């Protein structure tokens, strides 16, 4: 098979059959009936963590669903859910389904304009928020007593707002106390595969977020595809997972749904700043993250060694090199040499065991998604005994449509997931089909027609498929840079290499229509402070005062030189520009899954980009 032949396709058999109208809710309830004492969740209560059994969870889901019914939520209605990752998120998600309604997840970090757009576009009749701050952002969208929106001209249909921190769950249970159990059972039984389950809005790296129409079939297909993949073998009663990524994102939600169905135990956590504390408490067997999380774990381990002096830092560097070499050797016919095995065993006691302990000490598998992970970082983790399996998917595919688990080839995102297929067009774009592919964009037929054709979804990603069906992602079609000399450059791979340098937080390749390739670089705040301390530079010296410092520029140039080794001379980075601050989600420069909003950054830092090309 050639990677650019559109007539070639690679499909992975489903390996499972869905019962008529089976869905994630019915699967969870069936599991609760069969194994009522399985612990599905741990949650905080009265300053401690308590277990939630499958039977307790199923009962609570129905109680909350009765509250939604009591307040007038009808089958097919949309209910907005604006909250960080917590137990109540999963509870409400299932309860909304049990009431026959569809959930509309909203990131708490969304801007006021984005929140308003999602509520209006989805036609949500009820919103459930987490905090008073969340509530205050959407109160103006409520309907007045006469049924007209408070905000003139708004198409909002929202009748009520409930707040988790203001006893939303207790309120729903109280209001639903007189609703017969039979009413909930009737609505659950009426759910069909083709029914709307969720409108999940894209994170909006460009333009307004688009709502992806995902049915109950899409979600149960995705969950079963995960569970019947070899990586699903770990999803079983007794397996622990820390669920901390935003539940509004399909990756975290899909894995959470699969684990709930399988009977594994989840603990929710939303404060990534204290993630190590949560990992130590939960001691997870399975960890789900985005590449940036794994990068930060590696950097934190190095920093801890460097804080103890030059010898521990050198020891870590040698251990990292050994882990990468060992993992790379696993892919060779002869495997690791005896000498390499001996070195690895030594570093396992001195270094690797401590990193595993930082992840809770029990992690067997890690999954990453959201963006491409560098091969060296993947080899590092596999070499130290914690393999990270890279998955690939989009909101439009209900999360994963490929995962690199069986017959792992680091650098690829694996073969299509069970029941999915993939092919590459003549211009290098990846197309995906399968039961998880969405029905289209909500209220946007034009956008739907642009990406769906004969069951195939145009992902917008560029890549290749090898003879075994392993997919390699090389970039985004819309991010492709064409220099003034006509050279096509995909920025993703070089940006990933640059981000491996401890000092560099973000890197954005520029040069569309320009005479050469340049790059904008931001520095990691903690690493920059450490860099200054090592050189006795006063703390009050700001980055803007040091961007021309030769030693700093030399560090960044080393990273640029490493990235340039991966491309031709015409594609190489000729100049770099250090921005005076890091990018942030608060400034609308990063999505909640830490993807860079390139158009926002390019507009905001247009003068800095121009500076690369005007001789300054």
From TrEMBL:
SUPFAM superfamilies named among the record's database cross-references: Acetyl-CoA synthetase-like (SSF56801)
AMP-dependent synthetase/ligase domain mapped to chain residues: 45-442
PROSITE patterns: AMP_BINDING
Entry GO CC: membrane
KW Ligase (keyword) present: yes
CDD domains: VL_LC_FACS_like (cd05907)
Keywords associated with the record: Fatty acid metabolism, Ligase, Lipid metabolism
Stated name of the protein: Acyl-CoA synthetase
């Amino acid at each position: 098979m050639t990677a650019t032949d559109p007539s070639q396709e690679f499909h992975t058999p489903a390996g499972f059959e869905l019962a008529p109208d089976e869905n994630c809710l019915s699967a969870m309830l069936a599991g609760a009936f069969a194994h009522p004492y399985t612990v599905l969740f741990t949650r905080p209560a009265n300053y401690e963590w308590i277990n939630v059994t499958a039977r307790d969870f199923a009962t609570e889901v129905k109680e909350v669903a009765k509250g939604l019914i009591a307040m007038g939520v009808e089958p097919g209605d949309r209910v907005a859910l604006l909250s960080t990752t917590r137990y109540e998120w999963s509870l409400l998600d299932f309860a909304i389904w049990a009431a026959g309604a569809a959930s509309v997840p909203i990131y708490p970090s969304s801007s006021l304009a984005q929140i308003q757009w999602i509520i209006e576009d989805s036609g949500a009749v009820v919103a459930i928020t987490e905090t008073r701050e969340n509530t205050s952002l959407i109160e103006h969208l409520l309907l007045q007593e006469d049924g007209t929106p408070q905000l003139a001209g708004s198409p909002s249909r929202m009748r009520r707002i409930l707040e988790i921190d203001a006893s939303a769950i207790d309120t729903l249970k109280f209001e639903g106390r007189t609703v017969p159990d039979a009413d909930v059972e009737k609505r659950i039984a009426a759910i069909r595969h083709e029914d709307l389950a969720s409108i999940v809005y894209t994170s909006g790296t460009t333009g307004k977020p688009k709502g992806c129409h995902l049915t109950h079939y899409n979600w149960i297909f995705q969950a079963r595809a995960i569970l019947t993949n070899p990586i699903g073998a770990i999803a079983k009663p007794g397996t622990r997972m820390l669920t901390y990524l935003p539940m509004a994102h399909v990756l975290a939600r899909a894995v959470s749904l699969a684990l709930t169905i399988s009977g594994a135990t989840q603990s929710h956590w939303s404060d990534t700043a204290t993630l190590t504390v949560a990992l130590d408490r939960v001691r997870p067997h399975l960890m789900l993250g985005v590449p940036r999380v794994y990068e930060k774990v590696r950097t934190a381990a190095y920093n801890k060694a460097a804080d103890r002096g030059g010898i521990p830092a050198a020891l870590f560097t040698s251990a990292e090199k050994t882990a990468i070499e060992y993992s790379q050797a696993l892919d060779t016919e002869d495997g690791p040499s005896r000498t390499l095995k001996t070195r690895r065993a030594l570093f396992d006691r001195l270094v690797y065991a401590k990193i595993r302990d930082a992840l809770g000490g029990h992690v067997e598998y890690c999954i990453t998604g959201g963006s491409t992970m560098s091969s060296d970082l993947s080899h590092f983790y596999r070499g130290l005994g914690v393999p990270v399996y890279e998955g690939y998917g989009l909101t439009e595919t209900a999360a994963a449509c490929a995962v690199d688990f069986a017959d792992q080839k680091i650098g690829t995102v694996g073969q299509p997931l069970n029941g999915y297929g993939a092919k590459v067009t003549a211009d290098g774009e990846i197309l995906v089909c399968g039961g998880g592919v969405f029905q289209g964009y909500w209220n946007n037929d034009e956008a739907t027609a642009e990406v769906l054709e004969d069951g195939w979804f145009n992902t917008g990603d560029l890549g290749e498929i090898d003879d075994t069906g392993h997919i390699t992602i090389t970039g985004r079609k819309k991010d492709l840079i064409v220099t003034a000399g006509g050279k096509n450059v995909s920025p993703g791979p070089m940006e990933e290499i640059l981000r491996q340098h401890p000092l560099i937080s973000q890197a954005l390749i520029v040069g569309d229509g320009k005479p050469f390739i340049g790059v904008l670089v931001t520095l990691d705040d903690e690493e920059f402070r450490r860099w200054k301390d090592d050189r006795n530079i006063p703390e009050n010296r700001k980055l803007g005062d040091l961007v021309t410092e030769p030693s700093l520029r030399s560090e960044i140039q080393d990273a640029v030189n490493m990235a340039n080794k991966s491309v031709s001379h015409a594609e190489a980075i000729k100049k770099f520009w250090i921005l005076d601050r890091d990018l942030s989600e608060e400034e609308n420069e990063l999505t909640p899954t830490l993807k860079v909003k390139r158009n926002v950054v390019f507009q905001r830092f247009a003068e800095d980009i121009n500076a690369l090309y005007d001789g300054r």
